[in-house]
Specification:
Strand order of the largest sheet: 1-7-2-5
Number of strands: 7
Number of helices: 1
Radius of gyration: 12 Å
Structural class: mainly beta
Amino acid sequence: MDYKMFTANCSADDNIIDLINKDLIKKGLNNSKGYIRFVGFEGDAGTAFKINGDQFVIPKVGHFVTPFTGERGEDIYSLYFNNGCAGLNIYYIV
């Protein structure tokens, strides 16, 4: 289990998970599963995004994390920001 950070600059059409996987390959790492197990980020409250096709917004506290027990997390295949993003630090586990 590896905990990492990726800084995203993306359009609404960019799947962040694909961008993370391309970044891993560029760094000589391979995420052969093609998905990540946890994602967390900070942003403006109300920012809309989709995980695996389900719509969410960043809550009033200004950050979002997927549940993760240390053993088990959701398999995340897609992450899109409805209006894109710039300089957003995304923390994840592969």
